[in-house]
Amino acid sequence: MASTVIFGGRLGPSLLILAFLAFSVLSYPLYSLSGHSGPISRLRSRHSRGGEELKPRRCGLGPLTSLPIEEDGDESYSGTLLAPTTTSSSSSPFASFDYNSHWYPVIWACDLRLNDPTKVTVFDQDYVVARISDTEVICLQDRCPHKAAALSQGRVTSTGKLQCAYHGWSFDGKSGACVEIPQIHDPGFVVGGKGGGPRIPLQSRAQAIPAQIHQEMVWIFPGGNLEQALQAPPPPSVPEFDAPGYKMRGFFVRDFPDIDWSIVLSNICDPDHGLFAHQAKGFDLYSASKDHPMSFTSELFPNNGKGWILQSQVDAEQKVLHVDKQWRKNHQNGNNKKNASVKEGSKAEESKLATVYFSAPCHVHQKRVDRNALSINNDNDSRALSSFVTVFHVCPVGAGKSRFMSAMVLKNQVPLIGLFTRRWQTKLFLENFLDQDTYLLATQQQYILDQEARDLKQALLNTDNDKALVCSTRRNLFCLCSPTEKFGSKLEQFWDATLWRSPNRKERLLQLQAAGAFSQTPPRIVVLDRKVQHLDICQDAQDVVRNCRRITRIGKSIGFLAFAAATVMATATVTTPQQTLYTALRRPLWLWFTCGLSLAVSRVANSIRKEYYFKYTDDLRRRDMNKIPKEIWADK
Hints:
There is one protein chain. The chain is α+β, with helices and mostly antiparallel strands. The strands form seven sheets. It has a seven-stranded antiparallel β-sheet. Strands 8-9-10-11 form a four-stranded antiparallel β-sheet, with no helix packed on it. Strands 4-15-14 form a three-stranded antiparallel β-sheet, with no helix packed on it. The chain starts with 12 loop residues before the first helix and ends with a helix.
């Protein structure tokens, strides 16, 4: 999946250059990149952590990872293979973690157009969100109390109320109260029938959900009312976002209906996969080795243990690639020049530390900072900030489903950086980048969720109090032995200890298993369907595709007209036998240039349009796999 290292892609350099020129010069005025007018002001959190001091907890691998073993003199980490059992949650550090005490990211604010109700899903429960001003959003359960129709199919009235499309009932977005029923409308109507007017039943109240915009993301609090939301910790923050001179760019969203959100988050926090799945060398800066071990800088359990925050650091130097370079140097003399260039690149990172920050249950941000930065207590100190931060939000749509959202927080120190980080340009990279390992995650899910459902059945047979249990699904299924997986071991331990307590998961998992959802992996064309997963949910992407089609049609029309005009003009100029057709064709040179340029722009626009549909075939996968022995890890 995407990582802070590289938003890699697989488009050729020529296509990228043509795409940039064509859209920056020709089509940029045709659409708005943000999908709405006016800036989005951020709502500052009015609540704190309740005055509670977050005390660091002693870090350790915990019971998920076995004791280090000696193998040929090397220390490694290995997952223990035990019988499928469950243990009491009282022995787990995550015994108090509460999924209902957290805010959840559902959609980028720039994708939520003004007064346009939009359906979102968290823990298999549907909600409707709507932005009624630049800084204010409302959220209700997506079910009208009248006849259970979806409120997301309705509209926002001029007074900021959410009106159902079925019978016109209107609801206040903050309280959920029904404020108008057209069929019994009267100037003296009241809710509950007091005051002499027509009675609006108290059962007509919709369920209101606290919502806010925080750091360009729409967050909702499905676990309680506004009072409970204000008592909970605020949504996770990226310090660089609020620092002067920084800006968030490259907003990206993609639904994964065939991949569980816990699997996506584990993948994001696993830099080891980047070298092989993405062939991206920058991932190695976040990996660990015996000589460069990973350490936890902090592990917090805020809100009386209802939350969990884990931060790690490791030397931002090449580890796996260094081993490969040494082998190539000793066995392949022809690669010395290439190895030297890579080595020079790694020296620039010797003063850096690669850090990963995970805030449970669904936020990650990664960056590289100076070595002395982590000793600074003030997060807003410029010395503790990074010039490039990658932010990940994964919405827990439901069991076996997720919504992946990412962005970059950049320091505006590079000239013209805005020209190269427009949203549509970032998407060209990310769509190809995500396709490289998304299908691998889908193949994992078949086994992980099936085993989780089996463990759940066994646990329910052994006890009536399933909330007091911790499953061992990932502990028994995985074999974690890389030094980098010190972070992953803690994360998998967290999933085993808490996933059963997430809303609606137990019921949904058993339903999916009974329906045979885990019997096989869906085909590649389904798992990697960009149209359903991105184009259909992103208004900005729809604008890009629409304008690509327009540019393609216009370019072809201009090209053919120019070709016809140049041919007619050249034929008309052949008046003497001494004047050849070749000489005549050279005269309307500007028409031939117009023809070629128009057709080239048309072709580039059509190529960009295709990027929003299924693309990553088995042939492209084989092409990427062939790069591994050439660039990443030599066959030995």
